[in-house]
Design brief:
Elements (H helix, E strand, L loop, with lengths): L1 H23 L2 E7 L5 H14 L3 E7 L3 H8 L8 E4 L1 H9 L7 H7 L8 H6 L1 E2 L2 E2 L2 E2 L1 E2 L2 E6 H7 L10 H11 L5 E3 L5 H10 L17 H15 L6 H6 L2 H6 L3 E7 L3 H8 L3 E4 L10 E3 L3 E4 L6 H11 L2 H4 L7 E2 L2 H4 L11 H6 L3 E3 L7 H16 L6 H17 L1
Helix pairs in contact: 9-10, 18-19
Length: 404
């Protein structure tokens, strides 16, 4: 008996040492991101981690063609070990087995997942398992150029305004080649307006498309009506200039955009930049938010080391290093975000109270989202006689993609 106990203890010690060696052995990890503005902060996070874990090296790559490129390397040796994950890709990548289910590591280590914004955590959770560490989330607001308002004799709107007020202000600001509003082809803005109007996108299970809902039709008609009235930029303006350049160059006095653009807009127009909350519709104020997650590829050769890095990326210490660019998903770190700006960004912070996750199907989400974007562009370009015609066609094609 003593001999068997001795052997069992020896085996246990061997496995224990092997497990320790696996976690501590040297490893080289690659990480992909797509935003150059976040490259310095991301590199700072990697450097801080490597200082504590000298056996692990992390190379951060920034590629502008990330969304179309990543699916082509998933499952191959060229796939990054750690990647930024976005909403629609979550459904497709999980179903294809390309991501590591992190729940086993979380449960094993007793890793606390309650410190992040709940809606982002839910976004990257499937059937109770978490597939990505929440990185950040978006705020949205209406950005105004105070100098252009003053020149037109129009007052900066109050936060309790409605979409009808928004249209009236845009019209009052429009004259002599100046638009009140940039206009948009952004599916995020279209969805925010649609949801505020009371529109629907999908059934609760995400398997039936409802985008041709009557309230969504009203929202799209509203957006196009502003363009037709000359209160917002044309489709040609969107293609040739883009809403960012229209706003920063003084072609338009208002734009609707995300929190990540505050620094760029402030660099362009300085203290004339004013943030105002999103207008109210029949269903209240809505911000169509989204957040990035940090995920591990199923082809990662060093999962223990990658998990160690992922655990660090979820901490307040790590996420504060990017708080000058994005709103951290870590609640503790997010408190420091607004302190990075010289202007009042309380309208963006207030918007987080009525933010809802961007509508997404529960199957073939990337394809469905791409179809929606295609129809938005065609609608703004004037290729449909009405929003109803456009959305009926869009809904049918999105449903076919979901069913496919």
């Amino acid at each position: 008996m003593k001999k068997w106990l001795s052997m069992l203890l020896t085996v246990a010690m061997v496995f224990s040492c092997c497990a320790f060696a696996s976690a501590e052995e040297e490893a080289k990890l690659t990480m992909w991101i797509w935003d150059n503005n976040q490259k310095p902060g991301t590199q700072a996070m990697a450097d801080a981690f490597m200082a504590e874990k000298p056996n692990i090296s992390i190379e951060v790559y920034c590629t502008s063609d990330y969304p179309p490129k990543l699916p082509t390397v998933l499952g191959t040796d060229d796939c990054p070990d750690i990647m930024w994950l976005w909403g629609t890709a979550t459904v497709d990548f999980i179903s294809s087995g390309m991501l590591v289910d992190l729940q086993e590591y979380i449960d094993r280590d007793g890793y606390d997942t309650t410190g992040w914004v709940e809606s982002i955590t839910e976004w990257y959770t499937r059937d109770g398992d978490l597939y990505a560490i929440p990185k950040d989330f978006d705020g949205y607001c209406v950005f105004c150029n105070k100098a252009m308002f003053e020149a037109a004799g129009v007052e900066i709107p109050q936060n309790d305004w409605t979409w009808d007020d928004f249209a009236a202000v845009a019209q009052a600001l429009s004259s002599d080649g100046i638009y009140g509003y940039t206009g948009t082809t952004s599916h995020r803005v279209f969805s925010a307006v649609s949801l505020s109007f009371g529109g629907k996108y999908y059934t609760e299970d995400g398997l039936t498309c409802l985008i041709n809902d009557e309230n969504t039709v009203k929202a799209w008609d509203f957006i196009k009506g502003m363009q037709d009235a000359g209160a917002s930029g044309t489709y040609e303006d969107q293609v040739e200039l883009g809403s960012t350049a229209m706003f920063t160059s003084g072609i338009a006095a208002m734009t609707i955009d995300g929190s990540w653009m505050i620094s760029s807009y402030y660099d362009a127009i300085g203290d004339d930049l004013v943030c105002v909350e999103m207008p109210t519709g029949a269903a209240g104020k809505k911000v169509s938010t989204h957040g990035i997650g940090y995920a591990m590829s199923s082809t990662c050769k060093y999962p223990e080391q990658a998990w160690s890095f992922l655990k660090y990326l979820g901490t307040a210490e790590a996420q504060e290093l990017l708080s000058d660019t994005v709103i951290p998903a870590n609640i503790e770190a997010s408190a420091s975000w607004s302190a990075n700006y010289a202007i009042d960004v309380s309208a963006v912070v207030a918007g987080l109270e009525y933010a809802v996750m961007y509508p997404m199907s529960s199957k073939n989400a990337t394809a469905a989202n791409s179809i929606e974007e295609k129809y938005i562009n065609n609608f703004v370009a004037g290729n449909f006689s009405s929003a109803k015609e456009c959305l009926d066609a869009c809904c049918a094609e999105m449903q076919a993609a979901i069913d496919g």
